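Throughout this review, each integer encodes one residue's backbone shape. One record appears below.

===
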Amino acid sequence: MTNKLKKIKHMAAVAEYKKKLFVQPVLRHLFLELTMNCNEHCKHCGSSCGDENIPDILTTEEYFRILDQVKHDFGTKGFMLCITGGEPLLRRDFFDIMNYANELGFSWGMTTNGTLIDKETAHKLRLAGMKTVSISIDGLEATHNDFRRTKDGYRRAMTGLQNLIDEGGFKNIQVTTVVTHESIKELDSLFDIFDKIDIDSWRVVNLEPIGRAKQYPELLLTPDDYRYLFAFIKEKRRQELPVCYGCSHFLGTDLEAELRDWYFICNAGIYTASIMANGDIGACLDIERRPELIQGNIRKNTFKEVWLNEFKPFRDPNYRKCEKCDNCDDRIFCACDSFHTWNFDENRPEICMKDVLNF
């Protein structure tokens, strides 16, 4: 059997398995958005986070009750708490919440810009049971600082990264890089930097046309940029530093399982759910926060009842429909691609790799 036929067989099996997940979803990642406040103002932020916090943010005591409830209904094994924001370390009660989660037995990881991680914080994160962490480095120093609109952000993030490495005891320390039309030329230099420090993985993703990034269309990748990006990842990922593409898009038969270890599947609402800073319950936090995509609120509903009974838009294979997708031979594998880049007003994908790569 040729490699192409083997991949098609595997992708067909994934498509069949996804049908089962529509009926019996499996919670693997529960995101807790601790805050919308952030000390950076990144050009790509899907949630448009910044200086202003939202009203009615969940309190410390409410997070304690949420964690108690989730443990009672789901246990603490088989899934991970994914802590994010904004910048989660800006919450003054961050360690109160995460120490409590650790005491209950939850496994948890965090996404952070790294700028607030001094040596003491790195030590406290280990004691609080943090297993994994992803720190954002989005280019060389000048590029990173401009993209994140933060003076000295690169130096502080790299210092935070090194503090975690020096502390040790974490399962996976990852760097995530969002690549733009401007920064793509820096990938080789970034590889040289990350290859010399003791990180466990480097996750490289493209800028998505969502959130604040819509204000900067000139930063979106061109088809040539995508081809360069994917060739770069394919070449580098087999080397000592594991490099991978994110989960964002279906890449076609030639590239599926070449840039990451798994075949494409949008996890929203079947593997992944989130509790937002105001208590709203949704799927992936990068998805547009439209009323029909908010599935409940933790102040009014238990997470279990929402997970078991809602998320219908994400578990209905016919919820997203457009003529182009319906007539596409790859729809069985792609399923209209990712929810977070779907244009719900115009019923079409914002990004279709079939158009980009001509497969």
Remarks:
- Residues 176 and 189 are 15 Å apart (CA to CA).
- The longest strand covers residues 172-179.
